[in-house]
Protein backbone atom coordinates (compact mmCIF):
# COMPACT_ATOMS: atom_id res chain seq x y z
CA UNK A 1 0.00 0.00 0.00
CA UNK A 2 1.00 3.58 -0.46
CA UNK A 3 -0.33 6.89 0.71
CA UNK A 4 -3.53 8.02 -0.89
CA UNK A 5 -3.29 10.89 -3.34
CA UNK A 6 -5.72 13.62 -2.44
CA UNK A 7 -6.49 14.47 -6.03
CA UNK A 8 -10.12 14.44 -7.13
CA UNK A 9 -11.30 13.41 -10.56
CA UNK A 10 -13.13 15.78 -12.83
CA UNK A 11 -16.89 15.31 -13.07
CA UNK A 12 -17.59 13.45 -16.32
CA UNK A 13 -19.12 15.27 -19.25
CA UNK A 14 -22.46 14.40 -20.79
CA UNK A 15 -23.86 15.58 -24.08
CA UNK A 16 -25.43 19.05 -24.08
CA UNK A 17 -28.34 17.46 -25.95
CA UNK A 18 -30.71 19.02 -28.46
CA UNK A 19 -32.03 21.63 -26.05
CA UNK A 20 -28.77 23.24 -24.92
CA UNK A 21 -30.17 26.53 -26.20
CA UNK A 22 -32.74 26.63 -23.40
CA UNK A 23 -30.01 26.83 -20.79
CA UNK A 24 -27.35 28.81 -22.62
CA UNK A 25 -29.10 31.05 -25.15
CA UNK A 26 -32.77 30.89 -24.16
CA UNK A 27 -34.07 33.60 -26.45
CA UNK A 28 -32.59 31.69 -29.40
CA UNK A 29 -34.79 28.79 -28.25
CA UNK A 30 -37.83 31.07 -28.20
CA UNK A 31 -37.75 31.26 -24.42
CA UNK A 32 -38.10 34.93 -23.53
CA UNK A 33 -38.61 36.63 -20.21
CA UNK A 34 -36.38 34.71 -17.83
CA UNK A 35 -33.20 36.77 -18.41
CA UNK A 36 -33.02 40.31 -19.84
CA UNK A 37 -30.75 39.04 -22.63
CA UNK A 38 -28.77 35.98 -23.60
CA UNK A 39 -25.25 35.67 -22.24
CA UNK A 40 -22.36 36.25 -24.65
CA UNK A 41 -24.26 37.75 -27.57
CA UNK A 42 -21.08 39.59 -28.64
CA UNK A 43 -17.39 39.34 -27.69
CA UNK A 44 -16.91 43.07 -28.30
CA UNK A 45 -18.71 46.33 -27.61
CA UNK A 46 -18.54 49.69 -29.39
CA UNK A 47 -15.06 51.13 -29.41
CA UNK A 48 -13.17 47.86 -29.42
CA UNK A 49 -9.72 48.46 -30.88
CA UNK A 50 -8.54 46.54 -33.90
CA UNK A 51 -9.87 45.06 -37.10
CA UNK A 52 -13.47 43.91 -37.01
CA UNK A 53 -13.79 40.53 -38.68
CA UNK A 54 -16.70 38.27 -39.50
CA UNK A 55 -16.20 34.52 -39.54
CA UNK A 56 -18.86 32.35 -41.15
CA UNK A 57 -19.04 28.58 -41.27
CA UNK A 58 -20.88 25.38 -40.52
CA UNK A 59 -20.31 22.31 -38.38
CA UNK A 60 -20.51 19.18 -40.55
CA UNK A 61 -21.05 15.63 -39.34
CA UNK A 62 -19.43 12.57 -40.88
CA UNK A 63 -22.01 12.42 -43.66
CA UNK A 64 -21.42 16.04 -44.71
CA UNK A 65 -24.63 17.29 -43.14
CA UNK A 66 -24.43 20.69 -41.42
CA UNK A 67 -25.59 20.43 -37.81
CA UNK A 68 -28.64 22.56 -37.04
CA UNK A 69 -28.34 22.12 -33.30
CA UNK A 70 -24.72 22.95 -32.49
CA UNK A 71 -23.80 25.62 -29.98
CA UNK A 72 -20.34 27.15 -30.02
CA UNK A 73 -18.50 29.29 -27.51
CA UNK A 74 -15.47 31.39 -28.39
CA UNK A 75 -12.80 32.93 -26.18
CA UNK A 76 -10.03 35.21 -27.34
CA UNK A 77 -7.58 38.00 -26.57
CA UNK A 78 -7.95 41.61 -27.70
CA UNK A 79 -6.15 43.15 -30.66
CA UNK A 80 -3.01 43.56 -28.55
CA UNK A 81 -3.03 39.94 -27.43
CA UNK A 82 -4.29 40.63 -23.91
CA UNK A 83 -7.03 38.54 -22.39
CA UNK A 84 -9.89 40.22 -20.51
CA UNK A 85 -8.85 40.70 -16.92
CA UNK A 86 -5.17 41.10 -17.79
CA UNK A 87 -3.44 44.41 -17.28
CA UNK A 88 -4.21 47.01 -19.99
CA UNK A 89 -6.71 44.71 -21.72
CA UNK A 90 -9.19 46.50 -24.00
CA UNK A 91 -12.27 47.22 -21.85
CA UNK A 92 -14.47 46.84 -24.94
CA UNK A 93 -13.44 43.25 -25.51
CA UNK A 94 -15.25 40.72 -23.30
CA UNK A 95 -13.59 38.03 -25.41
CA UNK A 96 -16.46 35.60 -24.93
CA UNK A 97 -19.23 34.77 -27.39
CA UNK A 98 -21.94 32.17 -27.72
CA UNK A 99 -23.42 31.46 -31.09
CA UNK A 100 -25.50 28.74 -32.64
CA UNK A 101 -25.87 27.09 -35.98
CA UNK A 102 -28.85 28.54 -37.83
CA UNK A 103 -31.98 26.41 -37.43
CA UNK A 104 -32.58 26.41 -41.20
CA UNK A 105 -29.15 26.50 -42.84
CA UNK A 106 -26.79 25.29 -40.13
CA UNK A 107 -24.53 28.30 -40.71
CA UNK A 108 -23.00 30.32 -37.86
CA UNK A 109 -21.45 33.77 -37.83
CA UNK A 110 -19.00 35.24 -35.34
CA UNK A 111 -18.33 38.99 -35.46
CA UNK A 112 -15.38 40.08 -33.38
CA UNK A 113 -12.02 41.84 -33.40
CA UNK A 114 -9.10 39.94 -34.77
CA UNK A 115 -6.96 39.05 -31.74
CA UNK A 116 -3.27 39.80 -31.51
CA UNK A 117 -0.54 37.23 -30.89
CA UNK A 118 -0.56 35.92 -27.31
CA UNK A 119 2.33 35.08 -25.02
CA UNK A 120 2.46 31.78 -23.19
CA UNK A 121 4.83 30.33 -20.63
CA UNK A 122 8.53 30.03 -21.36
CA UNK A 123 8.50 32.70 -24.05
CA UNK A 124 6.11 30.86 -26.35
CA UNK A 125 4.19 33.13 -28.72
CA UNK A 126 0.96 31.99 -30.32
CA UNK A 127 -0.24 33.35 -33.66
CA UNK A 128 -3.59 35.19 -33.51
CA UNK A 129 -6.32 32.68 -32.81
CA UNK A 130 -9.76 32.27 -31.28
CA UNK A 131 -10.41 29.28 -29.03
CA UNK A 132 -13.66 27.41 -29.72
CA UNK A 133 -15.70 24.94 -27.71
CA UNK A 134 -18.41 23.03 -29.58
CA UNK A 135 -21.30 21.18 -28.00
CA UNK A 136 -24.35 19.47 -29.50
CA UNK A 137 -26.52 16.40 -29.34
CA UNK A 138 -24.29 13.42 -30.10
CA UNK A 139 -21.13 15.16 -28.86
CA UNK A 140 -20.43 13.50 -25.52
CA UNK A 141 -17.63 15.81 -24.42
CA UNK A 142 -17.38 19.38 -25.71
CA UNK A 143 -14.85 19.65 -28.54
CA UNK A 144 -12.04 22.21 -28.35
CA UNK A 145 -10.48 23.68 -31.46
CA UNK A 146 -9.10 27.00 -32.71
CA UNK A 147 -9.55 29.49 -35.51
CA UNK A 148 -6.32 30.85 -37.00
CA UNK A 149 -6.25 33.30 -39.91
CA UNK A 150 -4.72 32.69 -43.31
CA UNK A 151 -3.47 36.27 -43.61
CA UNK A 152 -1.42 36.06 -40.40
CA UNK A 153 2.03 34.57 -39.93
CA UNK A 154 1.26 31.14 -38.50
CA UNK A 155 4.68 29.68 -39.29
CA UNK A 156 6.01 29.71 -35.73
CA UNK A 157 2.84 28.86 -33.84
CA UNK A 158 3.69 26.19 -31.24
CA UNK A 159 0.32 24.43 -31.49
CA UNK A 160 0.17 24.28 -35.27
CA UNK A 161 3.77 23.02 -35.23
CA UNK A 162 2.62 19.98 -33.25
CA UNK A 163 0.34 18.75 -36.04
CA UNK A 164 2.26 15.93 -37.68
CA UNK A 165 0.18 15.58 -40.83
CA UNK A 166 0.82 19.02 -42.33
CA UNK A 167 -2.27 19.13 -44.57
CA UNK A 168 -4.41 18.94 -41.42
CA UNK A 169 -3.08 22.34 -40.31
CA UNK A 170 -5.41 23.85 -42.91
CA UNK A 171 -8.45 22.67 -40.96
CA UNK A 172 -7.68 25.29 -38.29
CA UNK A 173 -7.15 28.21 -40.65
CA UNK A 174 -9.95 30.58 -41.62
CA UNK A 175 -9.88 31.48 -45.32
CA UNK A 176 -10.31 35.09 -46.30
CA UNK A 177 -13.32 35.59 -48.57
CA UNK A 178 -13.33 39.43 -48.74
CA UNK A 179 -12.08 42.36 -46.69
CA UNK A 180 -12.69 41.48 -43.03
CA UNK A 181 -14.61 38.31 -43.89
CA UNK A 182 -13.49 34.72 -43.39
CA UNK A 183 -14.83 31.22 -43.93
CA UNK A 184 -14.14 28.58 -41.31
CA UNK A 185 -15.87 25.19 -41.41
CA UNK A 186 -15.69 22.49 -38.77
CA UNK A 187 -15.76 18.84 -39.82
CA UNK A 188 -16.46 16.51 -36.94
CA UNK A 189 -15.47 13.32 -38.71
CA UNK A 190 -14.07 11.89 -41.92
CA UNK A 191 -12.48 13.65 -44.89
CA UNK A 192 -10.98 16.94 -43.84
CA UNK A 193 -11.68 16.21 -40.18
CA UNK A 194 -10.90 19.25 -38.03
CA UNK A 195 -8.01 18.93 -35.60
CA UNK A 196 -9.62 18.82 -32.16
CA UNK A 197 -7.57 19.69 -29.14
CA UNK A 198 -6.82 18.27 -25.73
CA UNK A 199 -5.14 21.05 -23.80
CA UNK B 1 -2.61 38.19 -14.21
CA UNK B 2 -0.67 35.96 -11.84
CA UNK B 3 0.36 32.48 -12.88
CA UNK B 4 -1.60 30.03 -10.77
CA UNK B 5 -0.07 26.91 -12.27
CA UNK B 6 -0.67 24.88 -15.40
CA UNK B 7 -4.10 23.30 -15.84
CA UNK B 8 -3.89 19.59 -15.16
CA UNK B 9 -4.46 17.61 -18.33
CA UNK B 10 -7.93 16.15 -18.72
CA UNK B 11 -8.14 12.49 -17.78
CA UNK B 12 -10.03 11.50 -20.88
CA UNK B 13 -10.82 8.03 -19.53
CA UNK B 14 -12.95 9.71 -16.86
CA UNK B 15 -15.18 11.12 -19.60
CA UNK B 16 -17.58 9.43 -22.03
CA UNK B 17 -16.46 7.68 -25.17
CA UNK B 18 -17.06 9.99 -28.12
CA UNK B 19 -18.21 7.11 -30.31
CA UNK B 20 -20.91 4.99 -28.71
CA UNK B 21 -23.15 3.17 -31.20
CA UNK B 22 -26.10 2.70 -28.82
CA UNK B 23 -26.31 6.50 -28.77
CA UNK B 24 -26.93 6.74 -32.47
CA UNK B 25 -26.28 10.43 -33.02
CA UNK B 26 -22.74 10.03 -31.68
CA UNK B 27 -21.86 7.72 -34.58
CA UNK B 28 -21.59 10.54 -37.12
CA UNK B 29 -20.52 13.26 -34.68
CA UNK B 30 -17.56 11.61 -32.97
CA UNK B 31 -14.11 12.59 -34.26
CA UNK B 32 -12.39 9.54 -35.71
CA UNK B 33 -8.84 10.88 -35.33
CA UNK B 34 -7.00 11.37 -32.04
CA UNK B 35 -7.16 14.71 -30.26
CA UNK B 36 -4.01 16.84 -30.42
CA UNK B 37 -2.68 16.91 -26.86
CA UNK B 38 -0.40 19.56 -25.44
CA UNK B 39 0.08 21.65 -22.33
CA UNK B 40 -2.59 24.29 -21.83
CA UNK B 41 -1.87 27.81 -23.08
CA UNK B 42 -3.29 31.19 -22.06
CA UNK B 43 -6.36 30.59 -24.23
CA UNK B 44 -7.30 27.69 -21.95
CA UNK B 45 -5.98 29.10 -18.68
CA UNK B 46 -7.91 32.34 -18.83
CA UNK B 47 -11.64 32.51 -19.25
CA UNK B 48 -14.73 34.69 -19.03
CA UNK B 49 -15.82 35.92 -15.61
CA UNK B 50 -19.35 36.93 -14.77
CA UNK B 51 -20.33 39.19 -11.90
CA UNK B 52 -23.25 39.32 -9.53
CA UNK B 53 -24.73 42.09 -11.66
CA UNK B 54 -25.63 39.43 -14.21
CA UNK B 55 -27.82 37.42 -11.86
CA UNK B 56 -31.45 38.36 -11.29
CA UNK B 57 -33.24 37.67 -8.00
CA UNK B 58 -35.22 34.70 -9.37
CA UNK B 59 -32.60 33.31 -11.74
CA UNK B 60 -31.96 30.28 -9.52
CA UNK B 61 -35.64 29.64 -8.79
CA UNK B 62 -37.18 27.74 -11.70
CA UNK B 63 -40.43 27.35 -9.78
CA UNK B 64 -40.99 31.09 -10.05
CA UNK B 65 -38.72 32.58 -12.73
CA UNK B 66 -41.18 31.98 -15.59
CA UNK B 67 -44.39 32.04 -13.57
CA UNK B 68 -46.99 34.72 -14.01
CA UNK B 69 -48.91 36.33 -11.19
CA UNK B 70 -49.39 33.98 -8.26
CA UNK B 71 -48.69 30.94 -10.42
CA UNK B 72 -46.00 28.39 -9.66
CA UNK B 73 -44.46 25.66 -11.77
CA UNK B 74 -46.23 22.30 -11.41
CA UNK B 75 -44.32 19.36 -10.00
CA UNK B 76 -42.48 17.92 -7.06
CA UNK B 77 -40.67 20.82 -5.42
CA UNK B 78 -36.96 20.20 -5.02
CA UNK B 79 -33.84 22.04 -3.95
CA UNK B 80 -30.68 21.10 -5.82
CA UNK B 81 -27.51 22.21 -4.11
CA UNK B 82 -23.83 21.39 -3.87
CA UNK B 83 -20.33 22.69 -4.28
CA UNK B 84 -18.05 23.31 -7.22
CA UNK B 85 -14.49 22.21 -6.43
CA UNK B 86 -11.41 21.64 -8.54
CA UNK B 87 -9.30 18.51 -8.68
CA UNK B 88 -7.09 19.78 -5.85
CA UNK B 89 -10.18 20.02 -3.63
CA UNK B 90 -10.25 23.79 -3.58
CA UNK B 91 -13.64 25.50 -3.93
CA UNK B 92 -14.31 27.37 -7.15
CA UNK B 93 -15.92 30.63 -5.99
CA UNK B 94 -17.97 33.08 -8.07
CA UNK B 95 -18.34 30.87 -11.07
CA UNK B 96 -21.42 30.69 -13.25
CA UNK B 97 -23.59 27.57 -13.05
CA UNK B 98 -26.44 27.29 -15.56
CA UNK B 99 -29.10 24.58 -15.65
CA UNK B 100 -31.90 23.57 -17.99
CA UNK B 101 -34.46 20.80 -17.78
CA UNK B 102 -37.79 19.40 -18.91
CA UNK B 103 -40.97 20.14 -16.97
CA UNK B 104 -42.64 17.68 -14.61
CA UNK B 105 -44.24 15.92 -17.59
CA UNK B 106 -40.93 15.47 -19.41
CA UNK B 107 -41.44 18.23 -21.99
CA UNK B 108 -39.00 21.01 -22.85
CA UNK B 109 -40.08 24.50 -23.75
CA UNK B 110 -38.30 24.35 -27.11
CA UNK B 111 -39.49 24.62 -30.70
CA UNK B 112 -37.94 21.23 -31.49
CA UNK B 113 -39.63 19.30 -28.65
CA UNK B 114 -42.80 17.70 -30.01
CA UNK B 115 -43.49 15.24 -27.20
CA UNK B 116 -47.21 15.39 -26.39
CA UNK B 117 -46.78 15.88 -22.64
CA UNK B 118 -48.24 19.32 -21.96
CA UNK B 119 -46.25 22.50 -21.51
CA UNK B 120 -46.60 24.10 -18.10
CA UNK B 121 -47.48 27.77 -18.59
CA UNK B 122 -45.54 28.62 -15.43
CA UNK B 123 -42.37 26.72 -16.21
CA UNK B 124 -39.61 27.94 -18.54
CA UNK B 125 -36.89 25.45 -17.69
CA UNK B 126 -33.68 27.44 -17.31
CA UNK B 127 -31.84 28.90 -14.34
CA UNK B 128 -28.44 30.23 -13.37
CA UNK B 129 -26.48 31.27 -10.32
CA UNK B 130 -22.97 32.13 -9.15
CA UNK B 131 -21.19 29.99 -6.58
CA UNK B 132 -20.38 31.72 -3.29
CA UNK B 133 -16.92 32.13 -1.73
CA UNK B 134 -16.91 28.44 -0.70
CA UNK B 135 -18.03 27.24 -4.12
CA UNK B 136 -21.62 26.55 -2.99
CA UNK B 137 -24.65 26.94 -5.22
CA UNK B 138 -28.35 26.11 -5.01
CA UNK B 139 -31.44 26.02 -7.17
CA UNK B 140 -35.11 25.66 -6.42
CA UNK B 141 -36.95 23.76 -9.14
CA UNK B 142 -39.36 20.93 -9.79
CA UNK B 143 -38.28 17.38 -10.46
CA UNK B 144 -38.17 16.94 -14.24
CA UNK B 145 -40.08 14.07 -15.79
CA UNK B 146 -38.47 11.23 -17.72
CA UNK B 147 -39.10 11.46 -21.46
CA UNK B 148 -38.93 9.24 -24.53
CA UNK B 149 -36.53 10.16 -27.30
CA UNK B 150 -35.89 8.99 -30.83
CA UNK B 151 -32.95 6.60 -30.63
CA UNK B 152 -33.72 2.91 -30.35
CA UNK B 153 -37.42 2.06 -30.52
CA UNK B 154 -38.20 2.60 -26.85
CA UNK B 155 -35.49 4.70 -25.23
CA UNK B 156 -36.31 6.97 -22.32
CA UNK B 157 -34.10 9.55 -20.68
CA UNK B 158 -33.92 9.18 -16.92
CA UNK B 159 -34.99 12.23 -14.97
CA UNK B 160 -32.11 14.68 -15.34
CA UNK B 161 -31.03 18.28 -15.08
CA UNK B 162 -28.48 19.63 -17.56
CA UNK B 163 -25.60 21.56 -15.95
CA UNK B 164 -23.18 24.01 -17.55
CA UNK B 165 -20.21 25.20 -15.45
CA UNK B 166 -17.53 27.72 -16.39
CA UNK B 167 -14.83 27.62 -13.74
CA UNK B 168 -12.21 30.34 -14.08
CA UNK B 169 -10.49 29.07 -17.20
CA UNK B 170 -11.90 28.29 -20.64
CA UNK B 171 -10.15 24.91 -20.42
CA UNK B 172 -12.31 24.02 -17.40
CA UNK B 173 -15.53 24.42 -19.39
CA UNK B 174 -17.91 21.56 -18.67
CA UNK B 175 -21.44 20.51 -19.55
CA UNK B 176 -22.91 17.49 -17.83
CA UNK B 177 -26.17 16.08 -16.47
CA UNK B 178 -27.40 15.35 -12.97
CA UNK B 179 -29.47 12.20 -12.42
CA UNK B 180 -31.61 11.27 -9.42
CA UNK B 181 -30.85 8.52 -6.93
CA UNK B 182 -32.96 5.44 -7.44
CA UNK B 183 -34.14 6.12 -10.99
CA UNK B 184 -34.31 2.73 -12.78
CA UNK B 185 -33.98 4.41 -16.16
CA UNK B 186 -30.33 5.37 -15.50
CA UNK B 187 -29.31 1.74 -16.05
CA UNK B 188 -31.15 1.66 -19.37
CA UNK B 189 -29.94 4.96 -20.78
CA UNK B 190 -27.43 4.85 -23.64
CA UNK B 191 -26.36 8.44 -22.95
CA UNK B 192 -25.51 7.62 -19.32
CA UNK B 193 -23.77 4.50 -20.63
CA UNK B 194 -21.36 6.56 -22.75
CA UNK B 195 -19.40 6.85 -19.46
CA UNK B 196 -17.43 3.62 -19.28
CA UNK B 197 -16.22 3.97 -15.70
CA UNK B 198 -19.13 3.05 -13.43
CA UNK B 199 -17.77 5.06 -10.51
CA UNK B 200 -17.69 8.12 -12.74
CA UNK B 201 -21.33 7.64 -13.75
CA UNK B 202 -22.25 7.29 -10.06
CA UNK B 203 -20.87 10.79 -9.57
CA UNK B 204 -23.66 12.16 -11.75
CA UNK B 205 -26.35 10.59 -9.56
CA UNK B 206 -27.46 13.03 -6.89
CA UNK B 207 -28.48 11.44 -3.57
CA UNK B 208 -31.60 12.44 -1.73
CA UNK B 209 -30.47 14.78 1.06
CA UNK B 210 -33.13 14.72 3.77
CA UNK B 211 -31.07 16.90 6.11
CA UNK B 212 -31.31 19.75 3.68
CA UNK B 213 -34.93 19.13 2.80
CA UNK B 214 -37.66 21.19 4.39
CA UNK B 215 -40.80 19.66 5.84
CA UNK B 216 -44.07 20.50 4.07
CA UNK B 217 -42.06 22.28 1.37
CA UNK B 218 -39.31 20.57 -0.67
CA UNK B 219 -36.95 17.61 -0.93
CA UNK B 220 -33.24 18.29 -1.43
CA UNK B 221 -30.73 16.61 -3.73
CA UNK B 222 -27.02 17.14 -3.35
CA UNK B 223 -24.84 17.45 -6.46
CA UNK B 224 -21.14 18.27 -6.15
CA UNK B 225 -19.11 19.11 -9.22
CA UNK B 226 -15.35 18.84 -9.77
CA UNK B 227 -13.60 20.89 -12.46
CA UNK B 228 -10.05 20.58 -13.75
CA UNK B 229 -7.43 21.78 -11.29
CA UNK B 230 -4.10 23.54 -11.65
CA UNK B 231 -0.82 21.84 -10.98
CA UNK B 232 1.09 23.61 -8.24
CA UNK B 233 4.80 23.69 -8.89
CA UNK B 234 7.76 25.21 -7.16
CA UNK B 235 10.05 24.90 -10.18
CA UNK B 236 8.48 25.66 -13.53
CA UNK B 237 10.97 27.52 -15.64
CA UNK B 238 12.02 25.06 -18.29
CA UNK B 239 10.33 24.79 -21.66
CA UNK B 240 8.32 21.65 -22.14
CA UNK B 241 10.49 18.70 -23.13
CA UNK B 242 13.83 20.29 -22.24
FE1 LIG C 1 -32.48 16.50 -21.59
Summarize the structure.
Chain B: One of its GO terms (molecular function) is protocatechuate 3,4-dioxygenase activity. Chain B: This is Protocatechuate 3,4-dioxygenase beta subunit. The complex is a heterodimer of chains A (199) and B (242). Chain A is mainly β.
How would you characterize this protein structure?
The complex is a heterodimer of chains A (199) and B (242). Chain A has one helix at residues 20-24; strands at 52-60, 71-75, 96-100, 107-113, 118-119, 125-126, 129-135, 143-149, 173-178, 181-183, 186-187, 197-198. Chain A is mostly beta strands and 199 residues long. Chain A has a single domain (41-187), classed as Protocatechuate 3,4-Dioxygenase, subunit A (Sandwich). In chain A, strands 1, 2, 3, 4, 7, 8, 9, 10 and 11 form a nine-stranded mixed β-sheet that branches. Chain A has a two-stranded antiparallel ribbon with strand order 5-6. In chain A, strand 5 and strand 6 form a beta hairpin. The two termini of chain A are 32 Å apart. With 242 residues, chain B is mainly beta. Chain B has three helices and twelve strands, in the order H-E-H-E-E-E-E-E-E-E-E-H-E-E-E. Chain B has helices spanning 26-29, 42-45, 198-202; strands at residues 36-37, 77-86, 96-100, 126-130, 136-142, 147-149, 155-157, 160-165, 174-180, 205-206, 219-222, 225-227. In chain B, strand 9 (174-180), helix 3 and strand 10 (205-206) form a beta-alpha-beta unit. The radius of gyration of chain B is 19 Å and the shape is globular. The two termini of chain B are 26 Å apart. The mean pLDDT of chain B is 94. At the A-B interface, helix 1, strand 5, strand 7, strand 8 and strand 12 of A face helix 1, strand 1, helix 2, strand 3 and strand 4 of B. The complex binds fe (iii) ion. Fe (iii) ion binds at residues 157, 160, 162 of chain B.
